[in-house]
Every structure is written in structure tokens, then in C-alpha cells.
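User: New here, any thoughts?
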Amino acid sequence: MQALDVTANNLANVSTAGYKSESEFYGALNASMSQQAPGSELNQAVNRFGILGGDYLNMHEGSLDPTGNPLDVAVEGSAFFVVQTSAGIRYTRAGNFHLNTQGQLVTSDGDAVLGQGGPIKLPGVGQVGPMTIPPGTVSISNDGTISVNGSLVGKFSLVEMEPGTQLAPEGALYFTAPDGSAKPAAASGVNQGVLEASNMNPVDGAVDLVSIQRNAQLMMRAVSIFNNDFNKTAAEQIARV
């Protein structure tokens, strides 16, 4: 069920800009290393192992799809945009931005995209804040500088994560990271008028879904066999009593 949830979520976000797919992993932990499981050989076989599992993010970059929209921006490299949400600072690769009624640059969810300089202190990065874009022709350079009709109006606060940082996905667009793990981007830039596509391959996802369903069928058969053996063992022991 965990694997099915992960795969279904990946497939549901095939068309989500900046989405990073997840992959599940599982492993067997020998629970009888410290003490032998009691009971019959069948009981030991069933209880000897515990299952550890989880999922990990695939941070591989998606393809860049031209849109022609001047407020669509894609990251080149490993950096993230910084976003201010009601829950706090978040990071995203989804650059399908627009202006709200106050002229602020916001995400598709309406959260403020943060630029360099501002009232918010971001550990490891510095001061950041929302960006207001006046009417006019918007131009965004590779380093994230935003100009309108040739006049500088702001610069994206692009950040990269320290090696080994554990990012946690929040919904389809955002990520959280431990405080202090972000730093100013040194090897990343942006492209205007394009979006980074999801890195989820729909064909691979469909194949995974079929494989999971087949594994589920095998597990159901295994459970049925165990149940039959349990019932047989119980019936034999009751007869002896």
C-alpha cells in the first residue's frame, strides 16, 4: 500500500512543473539476532523478520519546456526558489509564477516568491523579502536579476543546499529543509520563458504500478498459505489437547 501510494502520487504529478518523483525502498531486519523467536519453525519463519521502509526523492532535473510567458522561470542547476508560505519558509523548483493584485510575484499557490534584500532573515542566506513587479516589459537574466523596461526591480534569492541535507516534500510543489542548510546559489542560474517539467517518467510509473499490483497478488497468496498452515497447526494441537 505504501508503494502504491508513492507511485500513484508520482503519476498524478506527471504534468506538475518542478515536481520531483519519489521512490520507495524496503529492507528486512533480522529481529532474532538478539534472541531466538520462540515457537514452531513456522512461527519462527514468520516472526524472524521485521520490515523497514520509506521513500527517497529523485532530485534529477526535469526537461525544460518553453512557454513564452515572461514570468515563467526554470532553474538550471541544483538551486531552489525561496517562498514565504503561511507555514514558514519553503523551497521550490516550480517557476510558474504570476503577479497578485498587489503586484507581488507569487507561486501558483499564491505564496510570495522571495528576492534578495528584505525584512526576513534566512539563516545562511541573509535578508530576503517579497518582490513587487511594476507594469512593463519583464526581463530576467541568468543570474536571477529582474528588470522592467530596463530598470532593475529585484533579484531572485536562489539557494543551494548543503551536501547531505534531508529535504522533505510538502505537497507537490514545496520542500522543507533544516534551518541553516540553505546557502546562496553558486553554480546555478535561471531561464526565462521556460518551465522545468516533472522528472517523473509516465511509462516507468505505469510499469511500476503493474509490478506493485503483481507483488500485491503474490503477497495475498503468501498470506493465504500462512493462514492455512496456521489453521492446520491449530487444529492438530487442539486435537492433541
Notes: The helical segments are 2-12, 41-47, 202-240.
